[in-house]
Amino acid sequence: MKESDIRLVPIKNGTALDHLPAGTALKILEILQLSKPEKAVTLAINTESKSMGKKDLVFIEGKELTKSEIEKIGLLAKGATINVIKGSEVKSKAKIELPEKAVGIIRCLNPKCISSIENLETKFSILQGPLRAKCFYCEKTMHEKEIANAIR
Fold first, then answer.
1. What one-character DSSP code corresponds to residue 128?
2. Contact 121, 104 (CB under 8 A)
3. pLDDT at 37
4. How many CB atoms sit inside 10 A of residue 63's CB?
5. What is the pTM of this model?
6. Residue 4 has what pLDDT?
7. Which of 23, 93, 118, 126 has the most crowded CB, counting CB atoms within 10 A?
């Protein structure tokens, strides 16, 4: 097998995530709850990329992602590409953007926050440069690594 040979088998129907920052594929599997998938899931971790140096890829057979799932990925991999595949063809392709707000997808790390005490749906404003999330209720600000660990 030559190095230029294809290493991944394309999917027929589902979602392909490309241009993920290197090292994020396993976290994406976790937040999408795909650790024991019913359909095939293919990962490429730390693969070569002309534009990024190294990148991850995730192919999910038989699954289109919801808006909430795409927002979760946006918090980890702003600028990644999502491809919806149908009949072995790319039907839509888009850049994953950082959401402006995160509702119900991040848990607040402040144990005294009303969202923790009263089991309220969490609400965060997402701020850039560097990435931060600010709780609507207690105003706790979380940084990138904290956000990644608080995604549900």
1. T
2. yes
3. 66
4. 17
5. 0.86
6. 55
7. 126
